[in-house]
Amino acid sequence: MIRQPLPYSIQLSLTYLWSRASHSFIRIVTAISIAGIALSVAAIVVIMAIMDGFAHTLKQQLTGLHADIQIEHIHTIDPAHSTLASLSDLVGIDAITPTLTVAGFMQPPDPPVFISISGIDFEQDPNVTTLANQLDSGHWPAKPNHILIGRSLANHHGLLLGSTVRIHSPNHPQPLVRTVVGIVHTGIQRLDTGHLFTNIATAQALSGVPNRVHQLKVRIAPHADLHTVHASVRDSLPDAYWVTHWMSINPVALRALRLEHTVMMLIVSLILLMAIGNMGTTLLIHVLDKTHSIGILRALGARPAFIHRVFIIHGLLVTTIGLIIGLFIGIVISYYINPILAVVDQFTGIHLLPDGIYYLDHIPVQFNALGYGLVAMSAWCTTILCAWYPAKKAADLDPVAAVSHG
Length: 406
Description:
The protein is an alpha+beta fold. The protein has helices at residues 8-17, 24-66, 82-85, 151-157, 189-194, 200-207, 226-236, 251-289, 291-299, 304-335, 337-348, 369-395, 399-405; strands spanning 69-77, 93-107, 113-120, 135-138, 146-150, 164-169, 172-184, 195-199, 213-220, 241-245. Strand 2 (93-107) and strand 3 form a beta hairpin. The protein is elongated. The relative contact order is 0.17.
């Protein structure tokens, strides 16, 4: 007994897919159907990769520098207060660090430039924020007289590693002399151009509020639920405290990002639906072209269900080929999107990410295997629906009339 490597229905579908006996017009229409599906899928892959990349980067920016949860008071906070000290025992909290921000002036340059001075705990802050990972040059401060400044601030005023600056504040009679030991690039313009990071004691001295801070930043455990921990912290504190989380820091940007993602995916999905619908039309043309061979198969004893299955598989093969090509093209374009944009910028002079508008100097990309799987499943389900009528048309052909058609 000879065992066939594939069921005969699949072999026959493969034969019909690109048969040399078919008219060249039908092969061209089939190629157009595959190309339409491939381009639609490629567009979906690129949009998903870019939108997921932006969402992931935005979350990293917000949680990395502002932490997962922020605690503030109507006045200032005493971090040693027993109520606050007990927060670290709550389930889901990994670490807590204090911050204090004060307005001041920095010199050089001359005249002094207005800056925001952020006081942080240099020992505890790396456990809560990602500022330590965003050092562009230099090292993390190890002494009280060490400071960090943003890259744009350093470049604009000619400050280098080892530069000595004087920090002025209206609440402190004498300027404090500090040394630049690190330059950070956070990607957020207001931090890179107008912020200076010093130790918490220096900020307290400049603000005139010793042993007090403006905010506590909280990092939650990796697998903890943000809203659950947020509610737990809020319930543990008196009403005079404000407890916010990273999703509430910039809700407009998050909503806009979700809306853009939804609208773009809807538009491209409609294009994919049209491409698959075009495949259904192509399949109907195939049925008309193969009417004679269908009649012969029916005359030899092939059941209508077999003919129906052959053309359903035929449609799925067209969609699958388009999916594979589209996924490959989309992943390649997404992976090399920044070099591609650099070439476009070089030859056209069009800079798609102006520094004054966007806080990123590149397009972030993140691949989503689950999303691609959902796209494929949706495409196959739509294909079965679109191929159902042409397949039924083929299965219902009268054998005698079909044979005489040829």
